[in-house]
Amino acid sequence: MLSNKIHKHFENKVIWITGASSGIGRALVIALSSVNCKIFISSRSEEKLQATIDQCQDNKNNNIILLAGDLTSKQVNQEILQQIKQIAGKLDIAILNAGSCEYVDIEHFDSALFERQMNTNFMSMVYGIEAALPLLRSSADAQLIGMSSTAAYMGLPRAEAYGATKAAIRNMFAALRVSLLPQNISSSVICPGFVETELTAKNDFDMPAMITASKSAEHILKGIAKHQQEIHFPKRFSLALKFIASLPNPIISWFVSKTILKSNKARI
Ligand SMILES: NC(=O)c1ccc[n+]([C@@H]2O[C@H](COP(=O)([O-])OP(=O)(O)OC[C@H]3O[C@@H](n4cnc5c(N)ncnc54)[C@H](OP(=O)(O)O)[C@@H]3O)[C@@H](O)[C@H]2O)c1
Question: Ligand 1, closest atom to CA 193?
Fold first, then answer.
């Protein structure tokens, strides 16, 4: 349930949400479906995007529009934004959330995995930003939102590729929030801890402070409404990681090997 203030922020806005066919993206669409706004949703699976729409009880005015495609293609991003322009004539908020997580097996270090992760998580976002910026520039209250992760805060074993893509996104947004300000585009990066989704269902290790996808959607929409530069949650987890990441490198490495590496080894 969104507060009146958050509800008001999204009213009459045109919003594009990527990765909306499951998990956090789907939860964002469901939460926003009670607001009078137009939402364009994208991911590869048309069927799963339709399932997202079917789960929105408040889509009476057909305000949620499905635009499926593989976002690792620059062309697909351009075509989606062309359609948004034709249908809505504007774009106020782009929430670039699509992504995947593949873990590195250090015994079989594979550059193809890094390439896939960079394409899915980072390059798809870069193509999305390139396609969305011209429309965002003509909005009076434009917001560009990118999905990173608390995995961006420090190097974690097995997340050498995933973490690198999320650190790249967080770094890019630190620059964008300064360079886009003169163009009146506000930007935020999202750094969630563990959220219960298809992505984390594959994890075989302990996931402390895990929250539901609908709770994560509440945090994200509240952060967007407040124009927070970095939306991180749950605080008990994200603040602890930020603190550890601020310590000297040898202490971080000691902590990671004593906790995460030990927990990984116990499962092998
Ligand atoms: N869950 C967590 O704990 C957590 C924590 C921090 C950050 N995140 C980030 O949050 C985002 C959403 O993750 P989630 O947990 O909600 O996972 P999810 O349930 O697996 O959702 C991932 C979404 O991305 C879409 N996607 C993947 N590859 C795509 C591609 N090539 N083109 C278009 N869409 C693509 C998927 O749709 P299709 O398969 O239909 O394409 C799906 O809608 C990701 O960027 C993830 O890294 C998640």
Answer: 5
Q: Are 223 and 145 contacting, i.e. CB atoms less than 8 angstroms apart?
A: no
- Domains along the sequence of the chain with CATH: 4-267 (3.40.50.720)
What are the pLDDT digits (tens) for 24-77? 999 999 999 999 999 999 999 999 999 999 999 766 667 999 999 999 999 999
Q: What is the pTM of this model?
A: 0.96
Ligand 1 contact, 74 CB (< 6 A): no
Query: Which residue's alpha carbon is at the smallest distance from atom 8 of ligand 1?
Result: 149
Q: What is the pLDDT of residue 264?
A: 60
Q: How far apart are CA 112 and CA 121, in angstroms?
A: 14
SS3 60: coil
In short, whether 128's Cβ falls inside 6 Å of ligand 1 is: no
Q: Which among 41, 96, 100, 55 is positioned nearest to 224, based on CA atoms?
A: 96
Rounded Cα–Cα distance for residues 85 and 111 (Å): 37
Q: Residue whose CA is closest, atom 20 of ligand 1?
A: 199
CB 142 within 8 A of CB 136: yes
Report whether 58 contacts 102 (CB < 8 A).
no
Task: Dump pLDDT digits (tens) for 93-138.
Answer: 999 999 999 999 999 999 999 999 999 999 999 999 999 999 999 9
Pocket of ligand 1 contains residue 98 by CB under 6 Å: yes
CB atoms within 10 A of CB 27: 25
Position 76, amino acid:
V
d(C-alpha 243, C-alpha 115), whole Å: 31
